Amino acid sequence: MKYRSGYIAITGRPNVGKSTLMNHLLDYKLSITSPKPQTTRRSVMGIFSDDEAQIIFLDTPGLIEPKYHLQKAMIRQIQNAIQDADALVYIVDDRLFGETGGILLTDEINRLKDLNHSGKPAILVINKIDLVVKDKLLPVIDACNAAYPFQSIIPVSAKKNDGLTDLMIELKKVLPLHQPYYDQEILTDFPERFFVAELIREQIFYYYKEEIPYSTEVQVNEFIERDGRKDYISAVIFVERDSQKGILIGRQGKALKDIGTRSRKAIEHFLGRPVFLELHVKVSKDWRKDDSKLRQFGY
Ligand code: GDP
Ligand code: MG
Question: Which residues have C-beta within 8 Å of that of residue 49, sequence separation ≥ 6?
């Protein structure tokens, strides 16, 4: 038995491309992404399987100094993912090549050390190399090598699928010899309703400016499969204040209607079947700062 199987936590600062990387490694859009930081709030599990290995990825929220209670819950998500992991992927991006790249690298390594105090094997992924001039790559790789005992350092462009084969090879090397944990056909063991809520949140991240996406939480209340008819899904979008409710719904309900249409299309694409989606907006006052409300939301 030469089969390898294990858990890999994907970590790094907000917006470096953690979710994009997992999606492209799985060749399936499982984890929501957006140009805005802190899109991912809960770890998302995605399973890769082939003849040689099964890799169970955990895409985690970005590393931040927690201010809100919600952010503390997000940090716990990262810590739990690492605790369960056989190895971790730490991602940095093209910002390392800017003028303040040296300072940033020191900061990144400190974060990594803090995170990985149990000393699990760490692979450094330098993402977004599509934005970097090629001959700048080597000196930065050298600096990273000098700064931390990485298992390996792989430059990639997650978005352009560049370097991902090399990364896969390195990932398989760090996995223990083990039978597959999951059926080879399975892409995740998270429930469909989790992804449905995430897809609605993703549309909100794209549609609204500033604080609205961050003040929003989505809960799927009903998900009913009906014989010979479309699935019925009812979801509630929670905001923190009355004023946000108005913005979310928009003039004559137009914004909410748009969100509904876009979300439904994304959900249908994800599930591969038509659905009927109903959205409601409710105020859950200051939920991000309220531990009991966070618990109700499952954080
Ligand atoms: P996360 O917060 O670390 O999960 O980052 P996301 O995966 O949500 O990506 C953040 C932003 O970076 C999105 O706008 C992505 O499209 C973009 N991005 C991710 N990977 C790449 C890449 O390889 N090249 C470029 N140019 N952009 C990327
Ligand atoms: Mg993410």
Answer: 55, 180, 182, 184, 185, 186
Give the number of the ligand closest to the Cα of residue 21: 1
Residue 183 forms part of a structural domain: no
Domain match, 144 and 260 both: no
Residues within 5 A (CB) of ion ligand 2: 18-19, 40
Q: Is the model's pLDDT at 9 over the cut of 90? A: yes
Tens digit of pLDDT for each residue in 131-167? 999 999 999 999 999 999 999 999 999 999 999 999 9
Cβ(18) to ligand 1 under 6 A? yes
CA dihedral 220, 226, 229, 230 (to 10 degrees): 20
Residue located nearest, by CA, to atom 17 of ligand 1: 17
State which ligand 1 atom lies nearest to the alpha carbon of 32. 8
Measured from the CA of 14, which atom of ligand 1 is nearest?
2
**166, 225: one domain:** no
On the question of pLDDT at 74 being above 80, the answer is: yes
User: Which ligand number lies closest to the CA of residue 22?
Assistant: 1
User: What span, in angstroms and rounded, lies between the C-alpha atoms of 283 and 241?
Assistant: 6
Whether the Cβ atoms of residue 27 and residue 97 lie closer than 8 Å to each other:
no
Do 39 and 114 fall within a single domain? yes
pLDDT tens digits for 209-236? 888 999 999 999 999 998 889 999 999 9
Tell me, yes or no, whether 187 lies in a domain. Answer: no
Question: Is the pTM of the predicted complex or chain greater than 0.70?
Answer: yes
